[in-house]
């Protein structure tokens, strides 16, 4: 499911490049060749946070019973039908999220916290948040 969302976010890369906004992924572990296998789906820089500092002081998890939820089954089936295959290596129960962070003191312009496996951020919301960066100062670029 992460691969599907990574691919969708990477589709925004041309817009992000025009604005000078970088695209980063923070992952919690590097098991085997997983980061290498993830790279074709994500067109940005990938950082490993083995101490899980980026994930906050309270880890948000979903257990095995989460796999029985209708929304999760729907998300897995949808990703599978689009040709995205996951993996079963490593710790797979920590819920992820997405942040659009503005330059300087702007802070977080948009955040999405995954509520269940496959709960993706709305790309329109991401695009709107990126546009806030542009509106704040069109000459201001991330470096």
Describe it.
The chain has 143 residues and is of the alpha+beta class. It has one domain (1-133). Helix content is 33%, strand content 15%. The protein has five helices and four strands; from the N terminus they run H-H-E-H-E-H-E-E-H. It has helices spanning 2-10, 13-19, 34-38, 70-81, 123-136; strands at 24-27, 45-48, 97-102, 107-113. A two-stranded parallel ribbon has the order 1-2. Strands 3-4 form a two-stranded antiparallel ribbon. A hairpin with a 4-residue loop joins strand 3 (97-102) and strand 4 (107-113). The radius of gyration is 16 Å and the shape is globular. The model has no long low-confidence stretch (mean pLDDT 80).
Number of strands: 4
Radius of gyration: 16 Å
**SS summary, helix count:** 5
Order of helices and strands: HHEHEHEEH
Which descriptors apply to this entry?
alpha+beta; 4 strands; 5 helices; two-stranded parallel sheet; single chain; two-stranded antiparallel ribbon; about 140 residues
Topology:
Elements: H1 2-10, H2 13-19, E1 24-27, H3 34-38, E2 45-48, H4 70-81, E3 97-102, E4 107-113, H5 123-136
Parallel strand pairs: 1-2
Antiparallel strand pairs: 3-4
Summarize the structure.
This protein is of the alpha+beta class and 143 residues long.
